[in-house]
Protein 1
Amino acid sequence: MIPAFYTLAVTVLMRAAPQTGFVEGTVVDAASGAPLATATVTVRYDRNPAGSGRLTSQNTAGNVTTTSVDGRFRLEAVAGIPFHFAVKREGYTSIGEAFGREGPNTYTLQPAKEISGVVVRLDPEASLSGRVFDPELNKPVAGLTVQAMMKTRSDGSVYFAGMQQAKTGEDGSYRISALPPGEYRLYFSSNLTPKVVASPKATPGRVFDYPSVFFPGVSEGRSALTVNLLPGASLGSLDMRLTRQRLYTIRGEVRMDGPPAEIAVWSITPFTDDGEAHRRIGTLPGPGTFEIQNQPPGQLRLTAVTPSQEPAGRRLAMFETTVDRDIKNVQLQLMAGMQATFAVASFGVRDGARDPLWTDLKAVCTVELVPRARTRTGNEPSAQTGPDGRGVFENVFVEPILLSVRGIPDGWVLRQLLYNGQAVEPHRVEMNAAAPAHHFLILLAPAPNLVQGEVREGSKPAGQALVLAVREPFAKDNMYHRAKRATADGAGHFSLRTMQPGDWRFIAVAAADSWQRAFEILLSGGGVRQEVTESGTVRLTLETVQ
């Protein structure tokens, strides 16, 4: 006779076992439709089937199988957990390797049920190749890194992300394989990268290297030639002619008051429309002499900063220059942050008068300063408003910052920002190093306005269409701070309330999952422009865009 506690244990284990189902499908060549044998197919769950916890590539991977000679596969998966397939095969680009997010084709099984007829299409690998030559030295360039950067869309932005890369051989040739179809730029990077060393001894000699450029030899990504790579295509003769450039050294001294601390040194370059490259070039053990080696010519901003957890508080020094020669005697004085004050008040209410924000609404706002010209190094200054709307920032560095306000009462907007009495743009505040004090006056105002309208797709209302609005003017790096969105109802009607007065651009797309495409169109200047006043109703009719 089986003891009762064994029976209970078996029953609990049986109840705890996850319910499963099966999925059957075929892996085929996307171009020809021919079945692909020996492809590896893995179930990749979109959330951890074991429950909560941090997602990893291990705990979201399920059963694995290999396709048969006719390209077919059959896999068991946990029921009720969305999943997609990660598929690999030699000669084809892999798909679905990302974990913790839904793939392009997501499935959910019911217990003891089966899904059949799934077709997974793999694109044949494509490749890019060419040769790099130095006409001045009349010889090929070996050892350069060549990276294929693919046009990518994410979070409403379009950018080129690094994919595969290769090194040039002794004959200067390179070949980058295993590329999915798409639009590409080629980036050629130099062998030597800037680095900082402490207490330099010897006098530096002349160093030469090849500049980092985009094909066909331009320094900025926006001027690069874009290559359209079709499935299975092999594009060759992407040749480059590069001439060496002189690299320079920057020598100087880091000074700081108080006990010595480790100092991180960052290089921020270049300053182009493509953005700024923030690169940590090394760490110094403490104050003293330093040398930055292998620095290419051009504009440069250096940031030296101590860790935020130092007892004396974080210290910062910044230095900006144009590098066109070796530079000596740079002095980086690490200074402690200072105090800045702020006040949040109602627009139009005189100082000292009764302010409804604090007397009636009893609002609580959090104001944060975020650096724009350096890498964030920890908790940046933020503070809550007191009962009178005032507050103090500690450890503020005089630099370009972005000011943001959280907790603005419903129905109110940020109407104006004053820095030391001068009106400034909230997303681009240039703090003045010569100012004896730093004070931010943040003015909020009620905005009882309303934008109403309908979205149409041809002659029919576009139910469930997505409407996006962005404030003019805006830049790519702050557009999300100034965007509003709404979803049309089944009859295509939408409304947006409490909008900051001024010019806005509106756009509608037929499906909510097309919002990235909508942002791309807005960035390119598309959409319907409309002024929104502080109060009143604006009515719009929008046509969906593709």
Note: The mean pLDDT is 83.
Protein 2
Amino acid sequence: MAIHDSDAEIGRVLGGRYRIIAPIGVGASARVYLADDITLRRRVAVKVLHEALAADDSFLRRFRAEAQAAASLNHPHVLGVYDWGNDDVPYLVSEFLGGGSLQSMLDAGHRLSVSQGLLVGMEAARGLEYAHAEGLVHRDIKPANLLFGEGGRLRIADFGLARALAEAGWTEPDGSMVGTARYAAPEQARGERVGPAADVYALALLVNEAVCGELPFTADTTIATLMARAETPFEPHPDLGPLGATLRKAGALDPAERLSAGEFVRGFMEAAEDLPRPAMLPLVGPVVDTEGGDRTQLVPDAAGAAPLRPVPTGPAEDDHEVGRRWPWLALAVVALFAAVVGGVAAFQNSRPVTHPVPDLVGATAEDAVAAARDNGWVLSLDEIRRNGTTEGEILEVDPEAGVDLEEGEILAVLVSKGEELITVPDLVGQSRDDAEARLDAVGLTVGDISRRESETIPAGSVIEVLLEPGQIEVEPGAAIDLLISEGPASRAVPEVPESRDVEEARERLLNLRLVPAEQTEYSPDVPEGSVIRFEPSTGAVVEVDDPVTIVISLGPEPIEVPQLVGSDVAEADRILQDLGFVVVGIEGNTALPVLYTTPRAGEMHLPGTEIVITTEPPNG
């Protein structure tokens, strides 16, 4: 993916997630696109760096570290970094702001009022105050890196990117080095170590330019610009009024004498009491523009040097005096020129100073944080579990102790998360005693016990090991909560089936895990072979595997025909009718006593059986 061919990239999806929509900014080292995050369905800004950087391991290592550090920042005045990656080219994904940059305002011919300049400076200083407290220095504060949301809120962009490019030795196609001389602090020109004070200095110059249209110390070449800045105090424009005092202190030559970002904020807050409420900022939406629009870079010009502006010599002097003083004046100018040129070279080519890595093995993560902060290293912390170690203990350091590590390089520290986690054994179905023994064998203990009825797990056995969702490993010595079975619940004897079918009745009992038994009895109401009732009766509470008897009907009970010989016929008829028999006839003289019955006395017959009474023998 060539950095110069922006239109060809429209529609491309970076990292399988970010679909490029349109270019919104361009520079020699990067191009910025409006893109669609197809995963979260939101608009984002994607800064795609030059393809030559994809093969630079040093840059990629620094880029990842700086991007991670930038993504950790969370402040209303710092641009949010969402993601980063390398898809043929390194890219950085951030929130998209629709209000454009301060540079786009200036390029459109707008100047800020003093009140607007106060607002911009104070919001930028608040973002810097937060970042400096987190140990990050921007190193490239300029109008192009101050972006605005559509509501006008300012956010600082590109934290760490300038440093990553510089430490990779990246140069622009014209041979210049990444960085902006227009806002460089004196110590940057001298090749000295850059700290938070350089960001504050750049902000002071930026506010002066945004309000008054003038950037101090600007000359035709980089060398001339830096020479003018190296030894000359910054004097704010008179039109800045109550902002002047704060800007003067923020632009002090000596970094130690400058205001901090927090002091810058407080100075502007005091000045706000003497200023009217600011009007809305003249926002200019994103447009294709050179990245920052800088006209001067932190490099010598093509010839490697630049013509000097005439040096004022004060009031006119006679030729003799001038002739006598000129060699010394020329020598001073040459010396200053050499110092600035040397400073520029140092600024371009020097690397941070080194410090020996202390012996941190066995120390704590807090010690590593302090060492990285004190020595200007980027700390990379990884955690691992290892038996025989304690949580927070440093196990390994790369580079190892005693190695000289450059400022800004990565100090990789491996920290213990404690003993290795223990996999909780499968205890379901085991008795409580067996479960406790298995836990003890792997270095765990039994925690809280809760109980619940279970149709499948025997009473006293484990139903479930109570862990967090998805958890299978725990810390050594952890107490494991168990759910223990109380066995199946009690149940009620069911209703007899309406059909009174014996097989259906047996199935109902078996479904309730009851044990069917059977017995029979006579019933005048229930047909033979049908269920009369359950015993215990319907609704009675029983336990699993208790027996329940199915009482099956034998039908009505047979009745013995009574002995009625000698009885009066009327009395015999009454007795038979009371027993349930039906007298259907009388053979013989009804005045005579009963001789016998048919069926005969002593026979067993069902109620309703027809009986004939006989009073005299046949042919009597």
Note: The domain at 491-553 is CATH 3.30.10.20 (Trypsin Inhibitor V; Chain A).
